[in-house]
Write a structure and sequence with these properties.
Elements: H1 2-25, H2 34-40, E1 42-43, E2 51-58, E3 62-64, E4 67-71, E5 75-82, E6 88-93, H3 95-107, E7 118-121, E8 126-132, E9 137-142, E10 154-160
Parallel strand pairs: 2-5, 4-10
Antiparallel strand pairs: 1-8, 2-3, 5-8, 6-7, 6-9, 9-10
């Protein structure tokens, strides 16, 4: 009986930990699925990118440029370079998603990710995100490494409504 209760308690604890880890890991934009992507657009196809935007990430906790304008429906290739000495990342999302995931990152700073709406880069490395902006409005981006977002490492993509 004692062994069975211990087994049940262990199983319940393991299930709780697994669930917590799954929600923390998520898809980097706060642990949300494809519905969250719909709010900010969708992964793009590289061959359909209409232009390339170079973005630099620096240890001054800034993105250059931090303000980007695109057209609704446009697919953009972001070539992201980490010119600093620290690990940085660029994550696309709503402001709420970024803040939620930032809190998770502060608790789990070594969390690894491989989602289409983000790129994490070691010092001196370059990567890319190809994204289609399907809705007019604004999509935020930020570096969710602990301390970076609070230090101002964020920006926005303004999506101009498509002409009818």
């Amino acid at each position: 009986m004692k062994h069975t209760l211990r087994h049940i308690a262990f199983s319940a604890a393991f299930a709780a930990l697994a669930a917590t880890g799954a929600s923390a890991a998520g898809n980097h934009a706060g642990g949300h699925g494809h519905d969250a992507d719909a709010a900010i657009g969708s992964p793009g196809v590289a061959a359909e990118a209409t232009r390339t935007i170079n973005v630099d990430m620096a240890d001054s906790m800034r993105f250059t440029p931090a303000d980007i304008t695109v057209k609704q429906g446009e697919t953009v290739r972001f070539v992201v370079k980490n010119s600093g000495q620290l690990k940085h990342e660029l994550v696309l999302g709503t402001e709420q998603e970024l803040k939620e995931h930032y809190e998770a990152m502060k608790k789990n700073p070594e969390m690894e990710h491989a989602d289409p709406n983000m790129v994490t880069l070691a010092a001196g490395k370059t990567g890319e995100i190809v994204w289609q902006f399907t809705k007019a409005g604004k999509v935020d981006f930020g570096c969710l490494q602990p301390g970076h977002y609070d230090a101002g490492m964020k920006g926005a993509v303004k999506i101009a409504k498509a002409a009818k």
